[in-house]
Please model this.
Amino acid sequence: MIKRSTGLYEQFSRKGGDALRATHYCAGCGHGIILKLIGEAMADLGIQDDSVFVGPVGCATFCYYYFDCGHVSAPHGRASAVATGLSRVLPDNPIIAYQGDGDLGAIGFNNAFQAANRGDNFALFFVNNSIFAMTGGQMAPTTLEGQVTTTTPFGRDTVKAGYPLKVCEVFETLEAPVFIERVSVADTKRIMLAKKAIRKALQIQKEKKGFAFVEILSPCPNNMREEPVKAAELFTETMEKTYPLGNFRDRSEKPVPTPKGVPLKNEKELIGGGKETVATKNDPSFKERRFKFSGFGGQGILSLGLVVAEAAASDGKFVSWMPSYGPEQRGGSASCSVRVGGKEIGSPTIDDPDVLVAMNQPALERFASSVREGGTILYDSSIKTNIGFPAGVRAIPFPASSIAIENGVSKASNTAFLGAMTGLGLLPFGETNIKAALAESMSARPSLVEPNMRVFETAMKWITDNLRP
Amino acid sequence: MRKFVRGNEAVMIGAVYAGVDAYFGYPITPASEIAHAAAEYLPCLGKEFLQAECETGSANMMYGAASAGKKVISASAGPGMSLMQEGLSYLAGAQLPAVVVDIMRAGPGLGNIYPEQGDYDQAVKGGGHGNYKCIVLAPASVQEMCDLTILAFDLAFKYRNPAVVLADAVLGQMMESLILPEKVSDVPDTDGWAVKGRKETKDNLIFSIYLDADRQEAHNFLLNKKYEEMKKDARAESYLTEDADVILTGYGTSARIARSAVDVLREKGIKAGLFRPITLSPFPAKELNACATGKKIVVVEMSNGQYRDDVVLHLENKEQVTLFNRMGGNLPKVADLVGVVEKAAEGKA
Ligand code: SF4
Model:
């Protein structure tokens, strides 16, 4: 005779001890009944081998003693988050989570709520016995008004401890859940209805139709200090006034919504689009150069730095680029530091630049004094300032903004500075590389390349005409 | 192939080449560009990206996906790392591989978004509850942000243990050339322990509870044995240490600042060298003692001596250490560091 599968192990060997056929639950505990209902439904639907069960922390922590399927034991309150993770990487498998009312209603409420709101694809069984059963009968969010627990010895006072949390009613406000029902396992009639709801939730999971939620009212005779039959009667009488049974939602017949598609690519297509590797050349004779580019955000400071960095890198230099960071970045100003060297770069930040490009007055006044001896300061000649420059530093007022405007691209002052630096020989890594890097920086807007090249050439010419003997 | 990229983006490039299956994370400055890259890359690769409701959520989503033997990653900073500690403890207890990237910012509390290294103890000493350690790797360049993310996955799966890539805001925000990895890592065989929703893996169990004291103790001994074994994977880099009289040591951004200081000191005729740990856990104690014995040591860090304490702990001679540190988002200045080392070398510190 072939024995009908129950979805549970025949012997609970994970439990250890002698009584390998008995569960660890107290007599009359609802968990034991729920366990059987879920196990049977899994077996009948034939999903045992494919399912992953996520257990909670509480009296049901040890449900992995019993279910004959893959099992992950979650941290307290996190079964929904763990099930979310699993359902995302095993999209075709039934994922089943099980949480008590402390676990789901208190510490893990947001995780469960957010999973419900995302419509994460798992079945969630929520066992409500109105108490923290395992830790000694403390108040749970679901504890009834006036109910005496070890942390509400005078009865739950809703003024101080809030009201019983109705999770079905809360989840009912969300768009994504496919199925929401509240059932009870307090007596045979109710168990039959619970069986149907549990089976339905698992059917939905078998078909991977979305988030299915079943709240199960489950008596805890142990904490009620009543014998099982009496406990169940009393439980039904008190609980169902606050937690009415019934189906809140069943959208399982509706078509499953599909996410918007994205273009599929392989790794190479996605990130492989780099440049031919130019090996960095160790060249101890190349003295490291430190550039500081500064001005207002929006003046193209960061991209000027990037063009210099890219030009140097494609010439085999060691390069680092660092945007303004820390207290330096105040009041809408922007700056970046670029180091170019013939060996590995140490600190990417720069305290004392060799070259300072200042595109506005605050930047000029802030950084001018930091430029090292023998260094160069290039600043827009429209800046009015009367600060003194450090000795041994060459300060050049340069008409970057007028050159940009003259060429019809008023925003290209940064390109003018690039031309000026090139003309002054401050960028010793090849004009071709610089121009290529400049063109590449505008690859998203090719129409800007030509006018920017004009700006670059005009700036170079200005240097030759005005500064070279 | 070469790309000029931000450190944070390099992390995700590394993750992609490591064959990552899923990213779960919550945005936080200065780590958010990692999430941005993940959101852009992973769906196109048919992989999973999910913005979680909080870092407690993301760590536990990782726990779930890692249970299925998948390669999972998340990134965060300061306050978010604190929320992840619960998950890291469970991941370690249940022996699950996962990679978390910490782009350290200044703290404690809300602190600010500027670079610091104040999460050292949290990452290296455990951070969450119980007897466990994370594998901790400390990149010091954009290239290493990528390469050490790949190594973090390798080690996490080798030891079935969470790995932390401990970087800071400078490394996350700066750009450098990145040589792209050549190929995508292989898929490791995890059928022996993962729960994959298949008949063959049905009897595998992911858990970290042992009600019996002796079994819990045995589990802790087993984890400890694993941490001992990891020591053979300790890594460090030395720069000009062979003939040095004074050794500067730091990790990450501090190590780069120290490297600049070493160059300045050498120009001045002071024989300085740099010892840079690449793995902070396991700590490269053998390598440190090999190059530091009998020499002055100047520790550079962007925290309150947390790394110094480990250097002292692992050194055979504990008398030789001077600390130079900055905090709050301020970076140590090369010139200041040079001054401290000069004094130390003269024996005045
Ligand atoms: S304490 Fe209550 S919930 Fe826990 S096993 Fe016993 S009866 Fe069930």
About this structure: The domain at 282-466 of chain A is CATH 3.40.920.10 (Pyruvate-ferredoxin Oxidoreductase; domain 3). Chain A touches chain B through 70 residues (CB under 8 Å). Residues A 25-26, 29, 31, 59, 129, 133-134, 220-223 surround iron/sulfur cluster (CB under 6 Å). The mean pLDDT of chain A is 93.
